[in-house]
């Protein structure tokens, strides 16, 4: 599901960043006895890279954009001090309390999982798999992966050129799940092509179907125009041909969204995850952690959703399941927890630090400011971080997801998206709207709650699954 392309860790890794230097020394994680720094990666084929991963997860749950408890306003300037018992924020969306400046995240000083000297890169899923592949049985998830054994790195792994032979079995089975998950969106589109003629009525029906699928006006008009051109060029005479041409047009429109998430260029790669309430952030982080752990990456989780106890517990379950560490403290300032996690990740030289933030509506200014603050404080812990800022969006929210992308991007400069819950929705067309109006890369998409239901986004695969 994930593929890695490892390269030598950056030299800046173990060194404290300009701001983080002193602070990180205070971080409990730093003081943790268990910081067996893993051996630096053997020099890979090219400098900087550590891993490249591709995969996806989903989770379906109704989006419930309830406002989380108001954040406490911690002093940005002083992230983690080891003291300052964090005041537990009552779960009320009211008055942002002045929180202690630096909550020492109680990282269980469990021994840091020794990062493998080199993870064996798995075969990359092809960018354009043969979708006619017979369905393989779903890949059952095994028990928590044991600590990955260090394996010698193969010489110069290649970062997955698009041209590849047959997809791995798990990718083929993913296509089946994807197709099934997109059924609601796809069926409304495919019924347009059940007639016998290519006429204006067909285009009108298609326009309606695209709008109903929340593709948005801009993307709908673009696709219709593009499709007409293709039909003319191909001299298509059958609606079924038009359907295939639409799949091509959609794949081309979505192609700019297809981009792999790179882990390993920085040590650690700090990935901040945000989104509205219930979008699937924690679940996606859990699944991503599992994929990373399976691929031999060491991971540290930061429970920066300090307001909802269930969120921390939920993340803790994923941490236990995947045998990775978690930095967490109830009621602490989310920025401080994030700072501590990044500092700990640097000290322990983990491959990735995943920061789970509390859900918030993009219209809640003070909560968006809190998110901005987390981002800034993470940068204090590591001047190059965050390396990825991901927004998790619920596919069920349709056009509202586009508004979320715009607002979160403005606030925290997104680098990628995870689109969950594309199963059970007829609004999967929102990806076309995003491609046309706010093309932020889609790293993963999800069509179910199982681990294997979150996979990397592939534009052609998506288009074909939708219009198959
Ligand atoms: N069907 C489906 N369910 C999903 C998917 N992703 C997450 N869920 C479910 O959605 C629900 C909410 O997921 P969470 O991960 O808790 O969402 P969250 O964004 O962390 O929630 P808050 O922390 O409250 O903001 C859970 O029941 C998940 O199992 C998906 O891709 N498909």
From TrEMBL:
What topology in the membrane does the UniProt record assign?
Answer: Peripheral membrane protein
Under the heading SMART domains, the entry gives:
AAA, SRP54, SRP54_N
The record's annotation in InterPro entries points to:
AAA+_ATPase (IPR003593), P-loop_NTPase (IPR027417), Signal_recog_particl_SRP54_hlx (IPR013822), SR_rcpt_FtsY (IPR004390), SRP/SRP_N (IPR036225), SRP54_GTPase_dom (IPR000897), SRP54_N_sf (IPR042101)
Q: Which UniProt keywords apply?
A: Cell membrane, Cytoplasm, GTP-binding, Hydrolase, Membrane, Nucleotide-binding, Receptor
Q: What is its EC number?
A: 3.6.5.4
Q: Chief localization class?
A: membrane
Compositional bias of kind Pro residues: 35-45, 123-160
The top EC class, named as a word, is: hydrolase
GO molecular function terms noted in the UniProt entry: GTP binding; GTPase activity; signal recognition particle binding
Task: Say if the entry is tagged with keyword Heme.
Answer: no
Q: Biased composition, Low complexity: where in the chain?
A: 13-34, 60-82, 94-107
Gene3D superfamilies registered for this protein in UniProt: P-loop containing nucleotide triphosphate hydrolases, Signal recognition particle SRP54, nucleotide-binding domain
Pfam families registered for this protein in UniProt: SRP54, SRP54_N
> A GO biological process this protein is involved in?
SRP-dependent cotranslational protein targeting to membrane
Q: Where in the cell is it found?
A: Cell membrane; Cytoplasm
By its UniProt entry, which PANTHER family does this protein fall under? SIGNAL RECOGNITION PARTICLE RECEPTOR SUBUNIT ALPHA (PTHR43134:SF1)
Q: Of which family is this protein a member?
A: Belongs to the GTP-binding SRP family. FtsY subfamily.
Q: What does this protein do?
A: Involved in targeting and insertion of nascent membrane proteins into the cytoplasmic membrane. Acts as a receptor for the complex formed by the signal recognition particle (SRP) and the ribosome-nascent chain (RNC). Interaction with SRP-RNC leads to the transfer of the RNC complex to the Sec translocase for insertion into the membrane, the hydrolysis of GTP by both Ffh and FtsY, and the dissociation of the SRP-FtsY complex into the individual components.
The record's note on quaternary structure and interaction partners says:
Part of the signal recognition particle protein translocation system, which is composed of SRP and FtsY. SRP is a ribonucleoprotein composed of Ffh and a 4.5S RNA molecule.
Task: Name the chain's protein.
Answer: Signal recognition particle receptor FtsY
Query: From which organism does this entry originate?
Result: Ottowia cancrivicina
